[in-house]
Amino acid sequence: MNPIIIAEQPSKSLSEALSSLTFSSLFILTDENTQEYCFPLIKDVLPESYFHFTFPAGEKHKNLETCAEIWTEMTEAGLDRKALVLNLGGGVLGDMGGFCASIYKRGIRFINLPTTLLSQVDASVGGKLGVDFEGLKNHLGVFNEPELVLICPQFLNTLPSNELRSGFAEIIKHGLIRDKEYFENLDFQNWKENDWKSLISHSVEIKKSVVQEDPKEAGLRKILNFGHTIGHALETHFLDGSNHLLHGEAIAAGMICEAWLSVEKCQMSSADLEQITQNLLEVYGKIRLNKSDFEPVLNLCLQDKKNEGKEILFSLLEKIGSCTFNVPVNKSEIAAALTYYQNL
Ligand SMILES: NC(=O)c1ccc[n+]([C@@H]2O[C@H](COP(=O)([O-])OP(=O)(O)OC[C@H]3O[C@@H](n4cnc5c(N)ncnc54)[C@H](O)[C@@H]3O)[C@@H](O)[C@H]2O)c1
Ligand SMILES: O=C(O)C(=O)C[C@@H](O)[C@H](O)[C@H](O)COP(=O)(O)O
Ligand SMILES: [Zn+2]
Fold first, then answer.
1. Is ipTM beyond 0.85?
2. Cα of 295 to ligand 3 centre, how many Å?
3. Where are the domains of the chain?
4. Which of 4, 55, 118 to mutate to test the pocket of ligand 1 (most atoms within 8 A of CB)?
5. Under CATH, what is the fold of the domain 4-157?
6. Which atom of ligand 1 is nearest to the CA of 158?
7. 161-342 in CATH: which number?
């Protein structure tokens, strides 16, 4: 895996990184918010000339239409294969910018400067890149490693608190799948009081250790997807409505449902289920689910990338801190998990 650096200040570390790499031109990608809040923190150390493209923020824009705009900009800027892309943003921007770089002229290099908690603890690491397609999460994509990931917690100073909370869900996931003590030491009651810097470095270690063992998700890496079969289905189902969910909010609900399935299918204890449910509800509350939401959500689960043939395969917990994968679950069991959530 290429270097992942956690640094106090973005400017000094970026300046060092840029001088250690050779490139013909630099293409900086921002969304409308990272352009406003994050770009000013790095602009002083940029080379005299560079290209810069900004697109509208949010999951709704993580699609091929935005990619086409990025590729057009890259082409008009005359980027050759020695060009370098700098992804300055959250998970949407990192997934899409890395994907665009990986496809352009069959692949140019990119570095990630993640600016949200979610992208610092999860999305910027591990080379899963892609965009949504036909209403399906990350349906088109590739695995490809960034040259470098530079994580600067200072960017979080301007991050809205709902986005911070969204990133916290992936931290909770890391504890649930790999490290009971980590999970138990998280502050759920006063979640804003968590020591983000130390959580970022521990979460990155957990994610790195899994990805290094199974970079292309042949098996073990599926544990990083705990909460995501149902979570992605919920995220997609609510994407266009007024009650749309952030990625971490959807994954938090997905983790409750999948913790319930873990009791049914993997003999996780009901004490663990209670603890997980209580902790997650404390931070995220409950999303409103109607019976009419069930069928579309179940159908979306059929499209999950972990599935094989007609089998829906889940990553589920054996206990807090330990996760297994490739567990077949049928539609009525998923409906029962949604009902558990609905009745809380
Ligand atoms: N590739 C992976 O392994 C992986 C892992 C987890 C999630 N993801 C993907 O990541 C995406 C979610 O990422 P996200 O939560 O970072 O969302 P995001 O990229 O949409 O960023 C969230 C919001 O915060 C704004 N923002 C970003 N940095 C800011 C800052 N420092 N100050 C103020 N505003 C800022 C953005 O403009 C956006 O409005 C989803 O599409 C999800 O599928 C990918
Ligand atoms: O890195 C991984 O592997 C993950 O599954 C991390 C997830 O948090 C992330 O949301 C990822 O993008 C989901 O991937 P997908 O294969 O389910 O689209
Ligand atoms: Zn995720």
1. yes
2. 23
3. 4-157, 161-342
4. 118
5. Rossmann fold (3.40.50)
6. 32
7. 1.20.1090.10
